[in-house]
Amino acid sequence: MPGPLVGRHVLVAASGSIAAVKTPLLVSALVKAGAVVRCLVTPSAERLVSAVALASLSRHHCYCDGDQWDPSRSRPLHIELAEWADLVVVAPMSASTLSRWSQGSGEGLLASVLLATEVPVLVAPAMNTAMWHHPAVQQNWRVVQSFPGVVPLLPASGLLACDRRGDGRMADPMLIELAAAALFSRSEEGAIADRDWEGKHLMVSAGATHEPIDQARVLTNRSTGHMGVLLAQVARLRGATVQLVHGPISVPEPWCEGIECIPVTTADEMQRVLSDRQPSLDAIAMVAAVADLRRAERLETKVSKQQLPELLASGWSQVPDLLAALSKHRPRGQTLLGFAALAGEDAALIAQGKAKLDAKGCDLLMVNPIDRLGQGFGDQANGGWLLGHDWTHEMPLMSKLTMAHQLLDAMYQSHIAAAAAADGRNESW
Ligand SMILES: Cc1cc2nc3c(=O)[nH]c(=O)nc-3n(C[C@H](O)[C@H](O)[C@H](O)COP(=O)(O)O)c2cc1C
Question: Do residues 165 and 182 touch, judged by C-beta distance below 8 A?
Answer without folding.
Answer: no
